[in-house]
Design a protein that fits this description.
Blueprint: E1 7-13, H1 14-24, E2 27-28, H2 30-40, E3 42-52, H3 62-70, E4 74-79, E5 81-84, E6 90-93, H4 97-107, E7 113-117, H5 124-132, E8 136-141, H6 152-157, E9 160-163, H7 164-171, E10 172-173, H8 182-189
Parallel strand pairs: 1-3, 1-7, 3-4, 7-8, 8-9
Antiparallel strand pairs: 2-10, 5-6
């Protein structure tokens, strides 16, 4: 469904793609992901959208954000909002849908094909609008998880649905094991 001479742009909904890959039991190798789509067409841009907790001393996503920023991805971030829900649980809110939609609409006249890495049904009107402008839209997500990670409306609207699980051998790597505590490392060495 790709043509070698078409101008491509990738729009990655970071939290959505992470959740889909996790549900399928693998991690995304973003270097391989970028190479795969460079092979499929003329990759103009690869955008990655994520909200970041500003006040955390260490955020587990920070090393990924820094690596992506230095390796050909255009990072779009904003501070996540932290709040306590009615049950007293700490929650984080950081929706990047508007930023992604605005960027896709701005880039539409300069691309032939947009690949959206998200299953969020809120993007259906965006996909429809991009199509009216003559842009082909492929959506990458999964129906193989329980429950499926892609909205049926979004899947029907897309020109092409790419099952994330079928990209596993091309862009995936086994999930990383959590680092053992310092004491366990010392015991294992001694």
């Amino acid at each position: 469904m790709f043509y070698k001479d078409e101008r491509l742009a990738l729009f990655i909904d970071g939290s959505n793609l992470y959740a889909a890959a996790k549900a399928l039991g693998f991690d995304i190798d973003y270097k391989l992901l970028r190479q795969e789509f460079m092979r499929r067409g003329k990759l103009l841009r690869a955008f990655y959208y994520t909200a970041l907790l500003e006040n955390d001393e260490y955020s587990p996503i920070r090393p990924l954000v820094d690596w992506l920023n230095y390796n050909g991805f255009t990072m779009v971030t904003k501070p996540a909002k932290e709040y306590t829900d009615s049950m007293g649980r700490r929650k984080v809110k950081g929706n990047m849908d508007i930023e992604l939609a605005v960027d896709a609409m701005e880039l539409a006249p300069r691309v032939d094909h947009i690949v959206l890495f998200s299953g969020d049904g809120d993007f259906r009107p965006l996909v429809e609008s991009l199509q009216r402008q003559g842009v082909r839209v492929s959506v990458v997500s999964t129906i193989r998880s329980q429950p499926p990670m892609i909205s049926d409306d979004l899947r029907r609207q897309a020109d092409n649905f790419i099952e994330l699980n079928e990209l596993k051998d091309v862009i995936g790597r086994p999930p990383r094991e959590p680092m053992p505590e310092r004491e366990e490392r010392v015991q294992a060495q001694g």
